[in-house]
User: What shape does this take?
Amino acid sequence: MGGLIERIDPLLLALAFAAAMLVAWGIGWWRGRRAKPEPGEDPGIKFTDAALALLGLLLAFTFSLSLARHDHRRAMVIAESNAIGDFYTCASLLKESHRSRLQDRIREYGQFKLDEVRHRRSESDLEEKLRWVQTIHARMTVIVAEAIGEGTPIAVSLTNTLNNVTSTHASRLAAYRERLPWSIVLLLFLGAVVPSFLMGLQQGRSPRPHLSGTVCFFLMVTLVIFVTLDLNQPDSGTIRVSQEPFERLLQSMEN
Assistant: This one.
């Protein structure tokens, strides 16, 4: 179910939330209009206030969680571009027999990492690209092994920077695959629908309509949910992690 939620466009999913809230409010309003008015203060107001407070907590929790994961993915982009840049600098200290070959592989790798984000399409496409990454890692490892075998004086630095490239790739991949659990999205859905129903029930018992406040409430909740879900989908959402560190890295390699 989590994979299905991730494949749905965040805007469509947010609109589905809005439609569900509107339907729940309409059902509650209809039930409220048919109910007999009770004298004095309605005790149901307390349940409505409690449900709205819980909805606020859920919105704050899910939004902060999605934003934190977005910031983590951005940090991983910077860390990986720095790791590739350090490896390229270290490779420039090798003898010509290995320097040009290794630098060509590093430039190819950096360009691939940039293009891979821009043209990512599906999970199967990602798996195919991951196999290519393993191949280029193996090629760079062979060149490093040859340089170490010939007694390069920077063997330790060369090995460490190569290990840093492979480890940051794994960390960035893990950060990219982090998503909100589908159970939390479902809980957010219920947390939005139930208060809407209680609001409609309460307003249906009132002689005065509150359409403007209701519309503004639904609009604000829908916008918060949209941004939360958009941050949760780094490959298909409108809020993307900037790839400027990789662009600047490739420019420096061309100089």
